[in-house]
Write a structure and sequence with these properties.
0% strand, mainly alpha, 216 residues, 8 helices
C-alpha cells in the first residue's frame, strides 16, 4: 500500500517527526552550558530553514556544521537575548513589587519587550542564512519585523498558540520537551524564509550564498 511505502505520507510524517526529535535533542544538548544556547539556536535554524524547503539532508551533520560556522556570533547574540529577556522580566517584577504599581514600569516593560522582540524574532534565522555583523543582524531583524508587521503579528499569535498547547497538560508538556523548541523554530523559519526570498528578489539584494552587508 502506498500509505506505508517510503514515498507515502505516513513514512514522510514519521521521518520528519524523527528528524524533529533529533534536532530538538541536539539543541537541548548544545544549549546545556547556557552560554552556547545562542550558537545552538543559530545551528538549529540552519536545519529548520532547509526543512521548510525539504533539503535538510542529515540533521545531525547539518546542525554540527551550523554550530561550527556560527558560534562566534551565536554566543554573544544568545547572551544578549537572555540579558534583554531578563531586563523585561526584572521590570515586570518591579512593577509587581513596588507599592502602588507605578505605571512607568509597566509601560517601559511593554515597550522594551516590543523592541527586543522585533530585534530578535528574525535575528537567529538571519544569522543562519547570511553572514553579517551582530548589530546589522539585529537591525535587519527589526527592519523585517516592521516591513512585514501584520504577518509578524500573525507569527507571534501562532507561536503563542503553540506554547499554550505545549503547556496545556503533562502529556502535551512531554511532547513539548521532545519537539517543542524545534517546532517553534520551524514555524519561525517558515515565515522568515518567505520574507527573505521576497527581499532577495529585489535589485541589488543579498542572496543566501553571498556575503551580507546591510539588507535594509
Amino acid at each position: 500500500m502506498k500509505l506505508f511505502s517510503v514515498d507515502g505520507p505516513l513514512y514522510k510524517f514519521l521521518s520528519r517527526l524523527w528528524d524533529m526529535i533529533k534536532l530538538n535533542f541536539l539543541w537541548l544538548l548544545f544549549s546545556l552550558p547556557i552560554v552556547t544556547m545562542g550558537a545552538a539556536t543559530v545551528a538549529a535554524y540552519t536545519v529548520t530553514l532547509k526543512m521548510v524547503d525539504e533539503t535538510e539532508g542529515y540533521v545531525g551533520r547539518q546542525f554540527i556544521k551550523g554550530f561550527k560556522e556560527n558560534w562566534k556570533q551565536g554566543i554573544p547574540m544568545g547572551l544578549l537575548a537572555m540579558f534583554c529577556a531578563y531586563v523585561v522580566y526584572l521590570d515586570f517584577q518591579l512593577f509587581e513589587a513596588v507599592e502602588g504599581n507605578p505605571i512607568f514600569f509597566l509601560i517601559f516593560g511593554m515597550v522594551a519587550a516590543f523592541v527586543f522582540g522585533c530585534a530578535f524574532i528574525y535575528a537567529f534565522p538571519l544569522s543562519a542564512r547570511y553572514e553579517n555583523t551582530l548589530f546589522a543582524t539585529l537591525k535587519n531583524s527589526a527592519n523585517i519585523a516592521a516591513r512585514y508587521f501584520v504577518r509578524t503579528i500573525a507569527l507571534v499569535v501562532v507561536l503563542a498558540v503553540e506554547i499554550l498547547l505545549i503547556l496545556y497538560n503533562y502529556t502535551t508538556l512531554f511532547f513539548g520537551f521532545l519537539i517543542g523548541p524545534a517546532c517553534i523554530m520551524l514555524t519561525v523559519s517558515g515565515f522568515a524564509l518567505h520574507f527573505f526570498r521576497e527581499i532577495e528578489k529585489e535589485p541589488g539584494a543579498v542572496k543566501e550564498t553571498e556575503k551580507a552587508e546591510e539588507e535594509d
